[in-house]
Amino acid sequence: MTIRKRTPEDLAAVARLLEAARLPADGLDRTEGWVVLDQGRIAAHVAIELTPDAAVLRSIVVAEDQRGRGLARQLLETAEAEAGPRALVLKTDAVGPWVERHGYRRVTRDQLPPSVLATTQFEGALCASYPIYLKR
Known about the structure:
Elements (H helix, E strand, L loop, with lengths): L1 E4 L5 H10 L11 E7 L2 E10 L3 E9 L8 H13 L3 E5 L4 H5 L4 E3 L12 H4 L8 E4 L1
Parallel strand pairs: 4-5
Antiparallel strand pairs: 1-2, 2-3, 3-4, 5-7, 6-7
């Protein structure tokens, strides 16, 4: 099992993984991402969209047959390390309790750093009704 930076060649496989989990792939080209490789296959993915004062987490997904192995936690830690001192933000209706166990708290839009509002997760309708979580 290897975690590495996502390459442009990975995008089609990542999009299929996201589609299987019913997650949007819109705007991935504006993110940095990491994949977990298992026997040459992409088994998990996470992405962040960086702003000057925040990192918006996107597309945390693990293939169904790979769940329960700690891959999401490893990818979350990778993304958080890359974000550095920035605030971490995500919208999710699926993993809210899980991210709360990792130090995130549910917030409202007006509690976010202003730069977040220009990211793909916040500028349009992508995940518009999903709860927002923040970690400082």
